[in-house]
């Protein structure tokens, strides 16, 4: 059984913590019918994908997302993704690390915080974003520019801020910002405690809010109930574990299920497929 491949950032670029290249350069020289980039793999760094021409799909955490001209995708580190084998798209990819982000002055938390079961995807961003990506690539490839890093950082910050503006759900008043802060705290708690509890009341108590309030927040930001949000997160973690060599019994225990049968029932209830069948379908 093949284990899940983890892709680390290139050690030769670790000091910069950043790379940008065209999708043609990334994908064009490979036979994608059997390449790791078209198989599910976990990235240990951040990605931004921008498509200048596309009529295909990209796969993130085992879900298929259509991409077209002007699509922009943000991927958090540790997410699992893969390209289409047909690779019918052109555009750019930016890869960067926490080290690179630490040198930036802006708060990018809202842009890159993982929204559980789906990546951030923007459409129809063509004209202005194409200009930004062209400039970023130009600055990146200019080895003799003494102001390269400063200019590059400004362009990158502008890209993030512009994206944040488009991604934000009208966070233009203090009330909405307060809601966002509470919701982000919930996602952090879920990340730390999903193996302990799958109960809405547990998280509501930790946040000092009512279960109804937590449900309202999840509806506002994800269009899901609080229970669905918790279940989606646990199922995503389960899927990530299932494409490994760990026995299902160990995965169940790792996810907080005392009995393997309870995990199997839970997984099947949420996905309409058994854990073993899920592994089989993905070839693991």
Automatic annotation (TrEMBL):
Keyword Lyase applies: no
InterPro entries assigned: AraC-bd, Homeodomain-like_sf, HTH-like, HTH_AraC, Tscrpt_reg_AraC-type_HTH
Domain HTH araC/xylS-type: 184-281
Keyword list, A-Z: DNA-binding, Transcription, Transcription regulation
Gene Ontology molecular-function annotations: DNA-binding transcription factor activity; sequence-specific DNA binding
SMART domains: HTH_ARAC
SUPFAM superfamilies: Homeodomain-like (SSF46689), Regulatory protein AraC (SSF51215)
Protein's name in the database: Transcriptional regulator, AraC family
Species name: Arcobacter venerupis
Membrane among keywords: no
Matches recorded under Pfam families: AraC_binding, HTH_18
